[in-house]
Amino acid sequence: MTELAIVAVLSAVIGVACGLFIAAFPSADPARSASRQLGAQVAEHRTLRRFVRARLDPGTTAGLTLTVALVGVVIVFIVFGVAIAMIRSNSGVVNVDVAVTRWAAAHATGVSLDVFGWLTLAGSTVGVVAVALATTVFALRRWRRWSLALFFLIVLGGQLLLSNAVKYAVGRVRPDAPPFHVLSGPSFPSGHATAAAATWAAVALVLSRGSSPRMRAILGGTAAGIAVAVACSRVFLGAHWTSDVIGGLLLGWTWFALCAVAFGGRVLRLGAPVQEASARPSRDRPSQSQS
Predict the structure, then answer these.
(1) Would you write out the chain's pLDDT as a tens digit for each of its 291 residues?
(2) SS3 call for 26
(3) DSSP string covering 185-213, please?
(4) Cα–Cα dist 228/196, whole Å
(5) CB 187 within 8 A of CB 193
(6) What's the Cα-to-Cα distance from 64 to each of 14, 42, 71, 72, 154, rounded to whole Å?
(7) Which of 96, 169, 253, 286 is most deeply packed, by most CB within 10 A?
(8) DSSP states along 160-181
């Protein structure tokens, strides 16, 4: 039962830390701030503004989706490049992975495997789709904005495409440590960890619209704790190496952050940076009477 205690403590610590961080900045909306800064930069450069407005036209969903996906792919592959190099060179990362998996296999029990089997559902395709649909229905009934449904569609679809693209590009073999069952398919990064990180963060962001700072902290901390718990369950089920789930968490949270910026943070309006850039010249332009 030691592994259950480890997962509980680790998830709680990270969840509480995330909640406290959010509570320390009750009025902060990092994605909205980044969205405004991006809009300001675009507005200052005419050529760049024309290019971005053409690619990120709020009326052209496909253009926005493709551009954000491209940015996400570039960022992910740059960050993962170092990790992949370390994995393929059998460096210290691999040694840690093997040691943790062997320890997990030696301490696995029927009860722990059952608990982790249920816990990992929170990051499965069925699990994330179900929670995304439930949140979307609730949000549509409360705020009646279809951009919320589009937000979840891009978050879920993007993380799935990115995680599988990286998986097949790396082609890492999964753990083989009895009594764990060897799973088929590439191992790095963990799809469950990626999906849990991106989806539960998106759920927290949507449900935090119009809520109190305390509730935003609780939602954010809970989302982080769930993602970490799902990631740990994949290791203790022998489905992934430790570095797989860490990479999955980073990928999921990065993709969520990109989508949140594209939708203007808690504003959750598609193409918010472009709308900010379009409005800024008219606000900054001097009036005719001053010329």
Answers:
(1) 688 888 899 899 999 988 888 777 776 666 666 556 656 655 555 555 555 555 445 444 445 545 555 566 566 666 666 566 656 666 667 778 888 888 888 888 888 888 888 999 999 999 999 999 999 999 888 877 787 888 899 899 989 988 888 888 777 788 877 777 767 778 788 899 999 999 999 999 888 887 788 888 899 899 999 999 999 999 988 888 888 898 899 889 988 888 887 777 666 666 555 555 555 554 444 444 443
(2) coil
(3) S--SS-HHHHHHHHHHHHHHHHHTTT--H
(4) 8
(5) no
(6) 33, 15, 11, 12, 10
(7) 253
(8) HHHHHHHHHHH-PPPP--TTSP
Q: What residue ranges define each of the domains in the chain, with the CATH number in brackets?
A: 2-280 (1.20.144)
Place of tokens 């036209």: 57
Task: Kindly report whether the global pTM for this prediction surpasses the value 0.90.
Answer: no
Nearest to 43 by CA among 273, 291, 289: 273
Q: Which run of H or E residues covers position 275?
A: helix 272-284
Nearest to 258 by CA among 213, 216, 197: 197
Which pair of structure tokens corresponds to residue 21?
């961080």
Burial class of residue 117 (count of CB atoms within 10 Å of its CB; 0-12, 13-18, 19+): exposed
Token digits of residue 96: 């840690």
Report whether 72 contacts 162 (CB < 8 A).
Answer: yes
Q: Where do we find the tokens 């679809």?
A: 157
Closest listed residue to residue 255, CA positions, set 130, 69, 78, 63: 69
Residue 107's pLDDT is: 80
* Residue 46: exposure state from Cβ atoms within 10 A (0-12, 13-18, ≥19): exposed
